[in-house]
From TrEMBL:
One of its GO terms (biological process) is cobalamin biosynthetic process. Pathway: Cofactor biosynthesis; adenosylcobalamin biosynthesis. It comes from Streptomyces solincola. Its main location: membrane. This is Cobalt transport protein CbiM. The chain crosses the membrane at residues 41-58, 79-102, 108-130, 137-161, 181-204. Part of the energy-coupling factor (ECF) transporter complex CbiMNOQ involved in cobalt import. It is a multi-pass membrane protein. NCBIfam families: cbiM, PRK08319.1. Belongs to the CbiM family. The gene is cbiM. GO terms for cellular component: ATP-binding cassette (ABC) transporter complex.
Amino acid sequence: MHIAEGYLPPAHAAAWAVASAPFVVHGVRALTREVRSNPESTLLLGASGAFTFVLSALKIPSVTGSCSHPTGTGLGAILFRPPIMAVLGTITLLFQALLLAHGGLTTLGANVFSMAVVGPWAGFGTYWLLRRSGASLMVAVFFGAFVADLSTYCVTSVQLALAFPDPGSGIPGALAKFGSIFALTQIPLAVSEGLLTVLVMRLLTQSSKAELLRLGVLSKLTGKGGSKGAEAGAAGEEKETVTR
């Protein structure tokens, strides 16, 4: 990830674009509702998009036709939920394809599906399950960002294996080849991204605590310096936030 311009067969590129489109359309609606209902969230939305743009622009050559890098989608998925992150991720990938020659327009659908759809959903699901099971905010944030990053590359490996099966062992053999090559660089990158996301979240809990309470990030378990009363008071708002 990102898969380079023109690298996928046209039929594969079109199929991934079709698969990604419903998630992006749903995300546009969710983003529109968020901005209209809470205009004050615009700054944090922009920061989440910028975080994704900067991290995913750092690339390390990996598999022919692709590269390794952090994704930055875990933070936005935790703050605003995966549908909105699908839009922020798509905008990021589009600008990188046009301005940085990073990824491409023909492979945009495939890159969106792996980095802006599967990554955020996997990361948020991990974060949500850990919080529900009693994990602290920062532990949940770390593993949410870690899984969002790593799952993106698992999907990219599948995409490449489907497009270029191994002549002898077919798709399973190609998947093992692509996955093992990605793992060399991506596991350390996922750990680093998890730690960086924890650092950013710590800063946000100090500078934007009210906003995090509104978004439901600090309402599931008592945060540092928080109270049970604040958690109970935010319960109704949290239910609405989780379903966005």
